[in-house]
Amino acid sequence: MKNIKDYQHKKILVLGLAKSGVSAASLLHHLGAFVTVNDKEPLEKNPDAQGLLQDGIKVICGSHPIELLDEGFELIVKNPGIPYSNPLVSGAIQRGIPVITEVELAYKISEAEIVAITGTNGKTTTTTLIYEILKADERKNPLIAGNIGTVASSVAQKATEMNQMVIELSSFQLMGIQEFRPHIAIITNIYEAHLDYHGTREEYAKAKANITKNQTKNDFLIVNDDQSELKDLVSFSKAKIIPFSTTRYIENGCSLYDGEVVFLGESIISTSDIVLPGEHNLENILSAVAAVKLMGVSNEAIRKVLTTFKGVKHRTQFVMELEGRKFYNDSKATNILAASSALKAFQQPIILLAGGLDRGNGFAELVPSLKNVKALITFGQTAEKIEEAGRAAGIESIKRVDNVEKAVPVAYELSSPGDVILLSPACASWDQYKSFEIRGDIFIDAVHKLV
């Protein structure tokens, strides 16, 4: 890593812990900053804070006292999940104190080339595909980081010029960048999401577009050419635009032609050889192929991965087959579009498990995708709203349960051989579970208990 002096002797507040806050605090302490950590969890229940305290870092726990802003901090590193409406954050902005997220720190210290991926859907699959393809090419040494589960500022500390950092980024993280500049950036797509955090679709989209705000003519921006809104959104970018499309051939980008994935006119792989299911995954594949081809990866490495890669955990993940029923875990489907994409991937009758955090939206947009759903099991805050969509779609068998664990045996009872039992909630998990990963793991455990 680069041993930078940018933060030496500066008073810096790390607001909110979890993995990103712990990494940021430890890194800044190592770089010579005077670090204060503030987390709402009480110290006695906060092992992360206790560990930082033992390392000699000042820790304030139990609340977010507004008086902290009087201590003369020169920078705040904010946990991405803390909204900008938080009084400490909004107060800092009013006072002119910069507020960043830890991905900015990762960029400042990284010696590796950075490939950054964002978008509403497909981020994790695209990130994983790029990482796996780079790994399959023996000339590359990729590292994977970001919103996919490994904190970028931790990974960046290990990165050298021989590495390539592949980072998945959320809109929350991208709102907190200053100089962050990936050599290759990808925006998979833009749809309405996280309005409870951003307020409007326009603000959400603007946060996503931050991924390219510091790019230059020597960098690349890979964008979904099938979305006119996205093309307009990034029209300010100085990077070289590499479009991709699943609907038409693009000579200067990555697209489909005559059953082949084609990049800059070169045929890479036949779509019939790709094992990753679902039309929506073709978008992810095209953007990933564009990225690795720009990095000089061999077609052999691309084919090796795309002929074996079956998906990422919690993303239309095949769990098992039991008595002719196939179980799929798509817990990452935290919005309507993602759930619709998963539903369209199957031709068989579906028993759908759905529900979760109520963000105020309705589910009328889900109705056209429910044509193959023979039974609907709902749970969580949005159970009633999703049931309304189910009735509008003509689903006769609708059951409500307390949670995902209880939904699985009910779904099995309603199913027949040849059916698909699909967890694709169309909602975030936070009303009942700390993360979509925990929700998905509970689903998997419940499925295995049927045996």
From TrEMBL:
Residues annotated as binding ATP: G119, T120, N121, G122, K123, T124, T125
Localization terms from the record: Cytoplasm
UniProt entry tagged with the keyword Lipid biosynthesis: no
Catalytic activity: UDP-N-acetyl-alpha-D-muramoyl-L-alanine + D-glutamate + ATP = UDP-N-acetyl-alpha-D-muramoyl-L-alanyl-D-glutamate + ADP + phosphate + H(+)
GO cellular component entries: cytoplasm
Domain Mur ligase central as annotated: residue spans: 117-292
UniProt-listed Enzyme Commission number(s): 6.3.2.9
UniProt cross-references to Pfam families, sorted A to Z: Mur_ligase_C, Mur_ligase_M, MurD-like_N
UniProt pathway annotation: Cell wall biogenesis; peptidoglycan biosynthesis
Family, per entry: Belongs to the MurCDEF family.
Name of the protein: UDP-N-acetylmuramoylalanine--D-glutamate ligase
Gene source species: Heyndrickxia shackletonii
